[in-house]
What does this fold into?
Amino acid sequence: MSKGNLDDFILSAGKDKGYFVKLLGKGAEKYRVDVFAYCIMGNHYHLLARTQEANLPDFMHFLLSSYASYMAREGRKGHIFAGRYKAILIDTEEYLLTVSKYIHLNPIKTGMVQSPSEYKWSGYRYYFAKRKTPDWFDREWVNDYFGPGFQGSLDRYREFVEMDMDKEYPYPQDKVVAQTILGDDKFVKEVMKKHKPSVTSNEIAGRRQSWPGKTGQVLKW
It folds into this structure.
Protein backbone atom coordinates (compact mmCIF):
# COMPACT_ATOMS: atom_id res chain seq x y z
CA MET A 1 0.00 0.00 0.00
CA SER A 2 0.94 3.66 -0.36
CA LYS A 3 -0.51 6.95 0.77
CA GLY A 4 -0.53 10.29 -0.93
CA ASN A 5 2.23 12.67 0.07
CA LEU A 6 1.17 14.52 3.24
CA ASP A 7 -2.00 12.39 3.11
CA ASP A 8 -3.13 14.28 0.02
CA PHE A 9 -6.13 12.93 -1.86
CA ILE A 10 -4.27 11.88 -4.98
CA LEU A 11 -7.00 9.39 -5.99
CA SER A 12 -10.04 11.48 -5.21
CA ALA A 13 -11.82 11.74 -8.57
CA GLY A 14 -13.48 8.81 -10.27
CA LYS A 15 -11.35 9.28 -13.37
CA ASP A 16 -8.20 9.11 -11.21
CA LYS A 17 -9.27 5.85 -9.57
CA GLY A 18 -10.27 4.46 -12.94
CA TYR A 19 -6.91 5.30 -14.46
CA PHE A 20 -5.11 3.71 -11.50
CA VAL A 21 -7.11 0.48 -11.98
CA LYS A 22 -6.30 0.59 -15.71
CA LEU A 23 -2.59 0.84 -14.88
CA LEU A 24 -2.96 -1.93 -12.30
CA GLY A 25 -4.36 -4.27 -14.92
CA LYS A 26 -1.81 -3.29 -17.54
CA GLY A 27 1.06 -3.77 -15.10
CA ALA A 28 -0.30 -7.07 -13.80
CA GLU A 29 -0.46 -8.47 -17.33
CA LYS A 30 2.95 -7.12 -18.29
CA TYR A 31 4.73 -8.45 -15.19
CA ARG A 32 2.58 -11.58 -14.69
CA VAL A 33 1.14 -10.57 -11.34
CA ASP A 34 -2.05 -12.15 -9.97
CA VAL A 35 -4.22 -9.66 -8.10
CA PHE A 36 -6.48 -11.16 -5.40
CA ALA A 37 -7.87 -7.95 -3.93
CA TYR A 38 -7.57 -4.20 -4.35
CA CYS A 39 -9.25 -1.13 -2.96
CA ILE A 40 -8.61 2.37 -4.28
CA MET A 41 -9.47 5.05 -1.73
CA GLY A 42 -9.10 8.82 -1.93
CA ASN A 43 -5.66 9.19 -0.38
CA HIS A 44 -4.33 5.61 -0.47
CA TYR A 45 -4.73 2.18 -2.02
CA HIS A 46 -4.41 -1.45 -0.92
CA LEU A 47 -3.31 -4.38 -3.08
CA LEU A 48 -3.15 -8.10 -2.33
CA ALA A 49 -1.25 -9.94 -5.03
CA ARG A 50 1.11 -12.74 -5.99
CA THR A 51 4.13 -12.32 -8.23
CA GLN A 52 4.72 -15.23 -10.58
CA GLU A 53 8.24 -14.12 -11.49
CA ALA A 54 9.40 -12.55 -8.21
CA ASN A 55 9.50 -9.10 -9.84
CA LEU A 56 7.55 -7.00 -7.36
CA PRO A 57 9.86 -3.94 -7.56
CA ASP A 58 9.51 -3.81 -11.36
CA PHE A 59 5.73 -4.09 -11.20
CA MET A 60 5.41 -1.45 -8.49
CA HIS A 61 7.79 0.92 -10.26
CA PHE A 62 5.65 0.68 -13.39
CA LEU A 63 2.41 1.23 -11.48
CA LEU A 64 3.49 4.16 -9.33
CA SER A 65 5.72 5.96 -11.84
CA SER A 66 3.01 5.67 -14.51
CA TYR A 67 0.43 7.12 -12.16
CA ALA A 68 2.80 9.92 -11.11
CA SER A 69 3.26 10.80 -14.79
CA TYR A 70 -0.50 10.90 -15.20
CA MET A 71 -0.84 13.24 -12.23
CA ALA A 72 1.86 15.49 -13.67
CA ARG A 73 -0.10 15.73 -16.91
CA GLU A 74 -3.13 16.69 -14.84
CA GLY A 75 -1.16 19.63 -13.41
CA ARG A 76 -0.10 18.10 -10.10
CA LYS A 77 3.33 19.29 -8.94
CA GLY A 78 5.71 17.79 -6.39
CA HIS A 79 5.78 14.32 -4.86
CA ILE A 80 2.70 12.17 -5.40
CA PHE A 81 3.27 9.32 -2.97
CA ALA A 82 4.61 9.50 0.57
CA GLY A 83 7.85 7.63 0.06
CA ARG A 84 8.32 4.00 -0.92
CA TYR A 85 5.36 1.64 -1.01
CA LYS A 86 4.92 -0.65 1.99
CA ALA A 87 5.07 -4.39 1.29
CA ILE A 88 4.24 -7.20 3.68
CA LEU A 89 4.96 -10.85 2.90
CA ILE A 90 1.93 -12.92 3.88
CA ASP A 91 1.62 -16.52 4.99
CA THR A 92 -1.27 -17.75 2.85
CA GLU A 93 -2.22 -20.49 5.30
CA GLU A 94 -2.84 -18.10 8.18
CA TYR A 95 -3.59 -14.61 6.92
CA LEU A 96 -4.71 -14.51 3.28
CA LEU A 97 -8.38 -14.51 4.27
CA THR A 98 -7.82 -11.96 7.04
CA VAL A 99 -6.03 -9.47 4.80
CA SER A 100 -8.47 -9.84 1.92
CA LYS A 101 -11.39 -9.17 4.27
CA TYR A 102 -9.65 -6.11 5.71
CA ILE A 103 -9.08 -4.69 2.22
CA HIS A 104 -12.66 -5.26 1.09
CA LEU A 105 -14.11 -3.69 4.24
CA ASN A 106 -11.99 -0.55 3.94
CA PRO A 107 -14.75 1.59 2.35
CA ILE A 108 -17.14 0.64 5.16
CA LYS A 109 -14.56 1.54 7.78
CA THR A 110 -14.45 5.08 6.37
CA GLY A 111 -18.24 5.31 6.13
CA MET A 112 -18.33 5.61 2.35
CA VAL A 113 -20.76 2.72 1.77
CA GLN A 114 -22.98 0.36 3.74
CA SER A 115 -21.79 -2.80 1.96
CA PRO A 116 -18.49 -3.63 0.18
CA SER A 117 -20.47 -4.62 -2.92
CA GLU A 118 -21.55 -0.97 -3.28
CA TYR A 119 -18.02 0.35 -3.70
CA LYS A 120 -17.05 0.67 -7.35
CA TRP A 121 -13.29 0.93 -6.93
CA SER A 122 -12.71 -2.40 -5.24
CA GLY A 123 -12.03 -5.89 -6.55
CA TYR A 124 -14.79 -7.22 -4.31
CA ARG A 125 -17.25 -6.93 -7.20
CA TYR A 126 -15.40 -9.74 -8.98
CA TYR A 127 -16.38 -12.20 -6.25
CA PHE A 128 -19.85 -12.55 -7.73
CA ALA A 129 -20.20 -15.61 -9.97
CA LYS A 130 -21.84 -13.78 -12.90
CA ARG A 131 -19.32 -10.95 -12.91
CA LYS A 132 -16.79 -11.24 -15.73
CA THR A 133 -13.27 -10.86 -14.40
CA PRO A 134 -10.18 -9.56 -16.20
CA ASP A 135 -7.40 -12.07 -16.82
CA TRP A 136 -5.16 -10.41 -14.26
CA PHE A 137 -7.64 -10.78 -11.37
CA ASP A 138 -7.50 -14.14 -9.54
CA ARG A 139 -10.54 -15.31 -7.61
CA GLU A 140 -9.95 -19.04 -8.09
CA TRP A 141 -8.09 -19.23 -4.78
CA VAL A 142 -11.32 -19.05 -2.77
CA ASN A 143 -12.11 -22.60 -3.85
CA ASP A 144 -9.14 -23.78 -1.74
CA TYR A 145 -10.81 -22.38 1.36
CA PHE A 146 -14.55 -22.52 0.66
CA GLY A 147 -14.96 -25.30 -1.93
CA PRO A 148 -15.89 -27.66 -3.35
CA GLY A 149 -17.94 -25.98 -6.03
CA PHE A 150 -16.69 -22.66 -7.38
CA GLN A 151 -19.97 -20.73 -7.33
CA GLY A 152 -20.70 -21.95 -3.81
CA SER A 153 -17.19 -21.01 -2.70
CA LEU A 154 -17.73 -17.45 -3.96
CA ASP A 155 -21.00 -17.25 -2.01
CA ARG A 156 -19.36 -18.54 1.14
CA TYR A 157 -16.43 -16.15 0.75
CA ARG A 158 -18.78 -13.17 0.53
CA GLU A 159 -20.57 -14.40 3.64
CA PHE A 160 -17.18 -14.56 5.37
CA VAL A 161 -16.40 -10.97 4.41
CA GLU A 162 -19.81 -9.47 5.12
CA MET A 163 -20.32 -11.10 8.51
CA ASP A 164 -18.08 -8.38 9.94
CA MET A 165 -19.55 -5.37 8.12
CA ASP A 166 -21.01 -3.90 11.33
CA LYS A 167 -17.84 -4.47 13.37
CA GLU A 168 -14.51 -2.78 13.69
CA TYR A 169 -12.30 -5.16 11.72
CA PRO A 170 -8.68 -4.17 12.36
CA TYR A 171 -5.61 -5.13 10.39
CA PRO A 172 -3.47 -7.59 12.44
CA GLN A 173 -0.61 -5.11 12.76
CA ASP A 174 0.51 -6.62 16.06
CA LYS A 175 1.24 -9.89 14.23
CA VAL A 176 3.61 -8.30 11.69
CA VAL A 177 7.28 -9.13 12.31
CA ALA A 178 10.00 -6.64 11.32
CA GLN A 179 7.27 -4.56 9.64
CA THR A 180 7.40 -6.91 6.63
CA ILE A 181 6.31 -10.48 7.51
CA LEU A 182 2.84 -11.67 8.50
CA GLY A 183 2.52 -15.33 9.42
CA ASP A 184 2.94 -17.95 12.11
CA ASP A 185 6.25 -18.61 13.85
CA LYS A 186 7.28 -21.32 11.40
CA PHE A 187 6.66 -19.06 8.40
CA VAL A 188 8.58 -16.16 9.96
CA LYS A 189 11.54 -18.41 10.80
CA GLU A 190 11.64 -19.79 7.25
CA VAL A 191 11.66 -16.29 5.78
CA MET A 192 14.33 -15.01 8.16
CA LYS A 193 16.45 -18.10 7.56
CA LYS A 194 16.46 -17.47 3.84
CA HIS A 195 17.50 -13.86 4.29
CA LYS A 196 19.81 -14.41 7.29
CA PRO A 197 19.88 -12.08 10.34
CA SER A 198 21.96 -9.42 8.58
CA VAL A 199 19.15 -8.60 6.17
CA THR A 200 17.13 -5.53 7.15
CA SER A 201 13.35 -5.30 7.05
CA ASN A 202 13.50 -2.97 4.03
CA GLU A 203 15.58 -5.49 2.14
CA ILE A 204 13.11 -8.24 2.95
CA ALA A 205 10.26 -6.15 1.54
CA GLY A 206 12.08 -5.50 -1.71
CA ARG A 207 13.81 -8.85 -2.31
CA ARG A 208 13.05 -10.65 -5.56
CA GLN A 209 12.49 -14.09 -4.07
CA SER A 210 9.69 -16.65 -4.10
CA TRP A 211 8.22 -18.00 -0.88
CA PRO A 212 6.32 -21.25 -0.35
CA GLY A 213 2.65 -21.05 0.56
CA LYS A 214 -0.72 -22.47 -0.26
CA THR A 215 -0.98 -20.45 -3.43
CA GLY A 216 2.62 -19.29 -3.89
CA GLN A 217 4.21 -15.94 -3.10
CA VAL A 218 1.62 -13.55 -1.74
CA LEU A 219 2.29 -9.96 -0.83
CA LYS A 220 0.11 -7.18 0.35
CA TRP A 221 1.31 -3.60 -0.05
Notes: Residues 14-31 form the longest helix (18 residues). Residues 197-221 have pLDDT under 50 and may be disordered.
